[in-house]
Write a structure and sequence with these properties.
The chain contains eight helices and nine strands. The longest helix has 12 residues, at about 125-135. A hairpin with a 2-residue loop joins strand 4 (about 110-115) and strand 5. By secondary structure, it is an alpha+beta fold.
Length: about 220
């Protein structure tokens, strides 16, 4: 899956000349947590709700409401954006690459840039949604959790057993363990998987759990 498949296209953006007051208003109106900053069409930064909270006066300040509003309406975004290279990603990058960048840099979103132009934004929520979709968590089906030797050919072996016993795989994920074992999670569209489970066990594969989940 590519970044373009899950990103929000054409995100709302601001410029360095946008005031903090206007940026806060945009965030409230659109329920945004971050806004890309463009200068003459070029991405120069990204501002989060946390950034704006840190530069806004504390509620304990002695300033009046009028003075607060005046201060926020005069302070430009350009004065608070960090002077460093902006992390971005291509729309054709794999989604897991975006997830790795977010994890390594401890950020919650990445602007998506194509040929120097901002075309989207990908957030941690988008990554979570993709994981949920990949695992079939919103789809009804029978979830099998298997433990098997982490060696070549095992996935083919399991798939063949499932297929030959009437199983219909809709989702699949492999989690490698340091013990030399692998946890294979399958979701089948079938509700009755007794024959599949029985045959897997006969072939020496540890079926840790098999449960139908009917929610959608």
């Amino acid at each position: 899956m590519r970044v373009r498949d899950k990103m929000t296209p054409n995100p709302v953006s601001i410029t360095p000349q946008t005031t903090i007051a206007d940026a806060l208003a945009l965030m409230r109106e659109g329920n945004f947590r971050r806004l890309p900053v463009l200068d003459r069409g070029k991405l120069v930064g990204i501002v989060t709700d946390r950034d704006l909270s840190e530069v806004s006066p504390s509620p304990a300040t002695s300033l009046s409401v009028f003075e607060l509003n005046y201060l926020l309406s005069r302070t430009k975004i350009g004065t608070i954006i960090k002077k460093q290279q902006v992390i971005s990603v291509s729309p054709d990058a794999y989604l897991e690459q975006a997830a790795l960048i977010m994890r390594d840099h401890e950020i919650g979103a990445i602007p998506v840039v194509e040929e120097g132009k901002l075309v989207g934004i990908i957030t941690e929520s988008d990554i979570f949604d993709a994981f949920i979709e990949m695992m079939g968590l919103r789809d009804p089906g029978t979830r099998l959790e298997l433990e098997l030797e982490d060696k070549p050919g095992m996935l083919v072996k399991v798939s063949e057993i499932v297929w030959k016993n009437g199983g219909d795989i809709s989702h699949l994920a492999v989690f490698h363990q340091q013990s030399g074992k692998a946890h294979l999670v399958l979701q089948l569209r079938n509700k009755d998987v007794d024959t599949v489970v029985k045959t897997l066990r006969e072939k020496g594969i540890n079926v840790r759990s098999a449960a139908w989940k009917g929610y959608a």
